[in-house]
Amino acid sequence: MIINKLDIREQNEATVLKAIIENKNISRANISTLTKLNKASVSQIIKNLIENDIVEEVGIGDASSMGGRKPIQLHFNGRCGLVLAFDVGYNYVTGMLAYLDGEVIRLEERKNTPINSENILPTVQSIITNFLSQAPVTPHGLVGISLAIHGIINDNRITFTPYYDLSGLDIKEPLEQLFSVPVFVENEANLNAVGEYCFMTTGDYQKIISLSIHSGIGAGTVANGSLQSGSHGFSGELGHSTLFPNGKSCPCGNKGCLEQYASNRVLFDTFAKLKDLDFVNSDIFAAAYNAGDVDAIRLALENVDYLSIGLNNIIVAEDPELLIVNSSVYRKIPDLLPRIRRKMVSRFTQSITIQTSLLGDHAPLYGGIAQATSHFLKIQNLRLGMLKK
Ligand SMILES: [Zn+2]
């Protein structure tokens, strides 16, 4: 959600549009009161927004019960354009085509294919071509593409991917040349946090952290509507905090990193080895846990022990109001998160709300939609509100 400096006219336009988005149906007079912009400026901005199909008038001239005329209400036309978001995992690519407001049009998954620097572009390109051949016609068409990468991203550049080799790859430029729209490349955990902020939280939370647990463990932070990614893009790389001095080696170059003990990948691999299974995922693991398998229970409780240390560490470093845990294991075994909560006894962690993600596996896709939409609308702290369930 990095947006170039806007001039005053653009800032005012963003302020008015944000008021319309966050207040659903609102009149010109109320926008003027809310934004402290004079009525003439508000009217001019709204005229432009209507001409560009971004805002629509509703309820024109309806008679109220008092006999007068209801003021014309305005609302955001979420269907005025399309965005595309991708989650690029180490062995899958998921694409989502949606309207600007997050209403999903299509979802496509390419599973069980190891992703590398040779096949990533053709895979993404073929999904985009599929989507666009059947996409609905909108006034603005496709306005942006976002890619969630499970690794370190600095200013749209992939600098390090520990579990697949995309390091140094430029995917932004070739996609921009092919499709002539802005392309955003961002860390998956960061996009999870953007998605949660934009679609799932209310205005009360100013600082949220989303903890993303898959092959690695990453945390994304949104403070006052802005993504905090650090000086080199690795802010929130919680998986590489040290859990055991001189412990297991990690691709980052260190030893004893948290994600070598507490990631879902490690949990599944350890369980597969113990049970002599070829493949384990969260469904298989949760089924074993719920059936009372002693190995699954022991590994799950060990995971709770390790993760509660990680959560404690990020809370004391970041002091968030809300911490969202996004893990398929913790979603499918609901009694694990309360166990983490009970382990966190420090006075610093008591006032923090900890909950599982409702966006689940699609959180980075919703984050990507939020990122591309906020760029198109030039609204930095975009909050589109709760998704229709
Ligand atoms: Zn590491």
Automatic annotation (TrEMBL):
SUPFAM superfamilies: Actin-like ATPase domain, Winged helix' DNA-binding domain. Keywords: Carbohydrate metabolism, Xylose metabolism. CDD domains: ASKHA_ATPase_ROK_SaXylR-like (cd24077). Belongs to the ROK (NagC/XylR) family. Transcriptional repressor of xylose-utilizing enzymes. This is ROK family transcriptional regulator. It comes from Enterococcus diestrammenae.
